[in-house]
Structures are given as C-alpha cells and as structure tokens.
Amino acid sequence: MTHAVSHAPEQGKVGPTLYGGKGTRRITVRDLTQAKERGEKWPMLTAYDAMTASVFDEAGIPVILVGDSMGNCHLGYDTTVPVTMDEMTLLSAAVVRGTSRALVVGDLPFGSYQEGPVQALRSATRLVKEAGVGAVKLEGGERSLAQTELIVQSGIPVMSHLGLTPQSVNAMGYRVQGRGDEAAHQLLRDAKAAQDAGAFAVVLELVPAELAAEVTRSLHIPTVGIGAGSECDAQVLVWTDALGLTSGKLPRFVKKYAELRQVMGEAARAFAEDVVGGTFPQEEHSFH
Ligand code: KIV
C-alpha cells in the first residue's frame, strides 16, 4: 500500500483513458472535465477502508467516493444521518492511504455544512488537511450554493449531489425524484446552480433517465448517475451492493458483479469446520 498525497502536482501521466490506465500520478478534477470533452465515460465506486480502496485502485477505478453510505454499509447505522466528521475523516484517510492513482472524494456528513458556508469550509478543509482527500461532496444545488461557492473559491473541488439526497431521508423518503414538470425544472436549476457555483461534477441519484440525460446535455461538467439511466457521463455504485456483500433486497438500479457475502460465508464456515474437525493447522502451518 502506498501513502500518497492527493494534491501532488499534475505532472506525469494519467494514462490514455481514465479507467484502467496505469498512470504515474493521481487523477485530478481536470482529468474528469477533459474526459467529458472526449465523450469518455468513467466508473466511480465507494470505499470505506484502505484494503478495499487498494483493490479498486489496482483495478483502475479512477474515482473513489468515501460516501456517507459508510453509515449503513460499514458502521452499522440505519441511515447516513448519524455519520460524524470524525468517522468520515478517519475512514477517508484510510482510503487515501490505500490508493495512489484514484481521485478520492470525501463526503461531507449531515450536520457538517448545513449551518452555512463557514461551517462547510471548516469541514471541507479538515477532510483535505487531515485525510488528504482530493475533493469533497455535498448534497443540494441551490440550497447549498453559498457553501459550494466558498469551498470552491478556497481551492477545494466540490462534487454536488442532487435528486435523492439520503441525508434528507426524514423529509423526502427514498423515492424517485424529479418527476413532474415542476420537480424536473427544479432539478435542472439545481444542476445549473451547482455548475455555476464551481462544482466539478454532479451526482444524480434516483432520477428519471430522460431528465438525467437532459441535465447531462445541459452541463459542461460531468454527471455521475446512480439510478439515473445510461446517459450520464459516469456511473457510481455503493461497493458493498455492487460486489454482493449487502444482505437483503437491493434497489432496482444496482447490478451485482460478485457474490462476496456467499464467498465470505463459505470461507468462514470452511475455516470453522477445519478447526472443529482438527484439520487446521497442519504441519505446513506449524513452527518447531
Ligand atoms: O454516500 C454515498 O455512497 C453516495 C453515493 C450513493 C453517490 O452518496
């Protein structure tokens, strides 16, 4: 595992494409803008620890999000709402340590930016200085305009998150956003506001595919879809969903690329049976 700082000067190569290129430096937000200009799509996965992040980094995933989905997917909370800045900082630092190429984006947790721009800048600065993330993400377009502007003006790249914003689950529930003319226009205004405030990308979560396509066409910054159809510039999935570690029913927009829960359960049972049956350890595992 490497211990790399994400704001290394932009020298060296990132590879011919964002995904998969070996590269000799960390990916920057500028690389993402250029990918949109080339019409190149890219993948983003979440990660919450150094080991998982290193697997995704080695696989060539160009952007890793330390999402506040760590609340339900890693820390055992019911929602993202309880996640704290201390938890986000600790786990973001681990993800940065586990990567050398990916741009690491740290989520600003609920309560760490809603009070206003000064609180938002303080939280973003902490994630950059203490964890070493290359960018932060926050929820809201027009409603988070002042926060986005101040953070960007201070030199920290911001990814905006629109559509279903899980930190507002108590107000909006989990349902498709942007349906109907008024809601669709609001989403377009939010996306434009985020771009005008200086955001480098916009996550669109649970948004009708046609609306996400329209937002994607109307922005010069990339859109990152999750449950937002195929026309977005990038796609993100929560890693525990995508690799089959999450138990229970998954949202319809998730595609499972592995069955890790089954693989890990079988491995744990095989180990237990070896121990109980006295077949582990054997001679080759022993010292004399
Ligand atoms: O926290 C998270 O994982 C996210 C993604 C779903 C975009 O915000």
Automatic annotation (TrEMBL):
The active site is at residue 205. Pathway: Cofactor biosynthesis; (R)-pantothenate biosynthesis; (R)-pantoate from 3-methyl-2-oxobutanoate: step 1/2. Keywords: Cytoplasm, Magnesium, Metal-binding, Pantothenate biosynthesis, Transferase. Binds 1 Mg(2+) ion per subunit. Residues 1-20 are annotated as: Disordered. One of its GO terms (molecular function) is 3-methyl-2-oxobutanoate hydroxymethyltransferase activity. Its cofactor is Mg(2+). Mg(2+) binds at residues 68, 107, 139. It is found in: Cytoplasm. InterPro entries: Pantoate_hydroxy_MeTrfase, Pyrv/PenolPyrv_kinase-like_dom, Pyrv_kinase-like_dom_sf. Its EC number is 2.1.2.11. It catalyses: (6R)-5,10-methylene-5,6,7,8-tetrahydrofolate + 3-methyl-2-oxobutanoate + H2O = 2-dehydropantoate + (6S)-5,6,7,8-tetrahydrofolate. Catalyzes the reversible reaction in which hydroxymethyl group from 5,10-methylenetetrahydrofolate is transferred onto alpha-ketoisovalerate to form ketopantoate. Belongs to the PanB family. Homodecamer; pentamer of dimers. This is 3-methyl-2-oxobutanoate hydroxymethyltransferase.
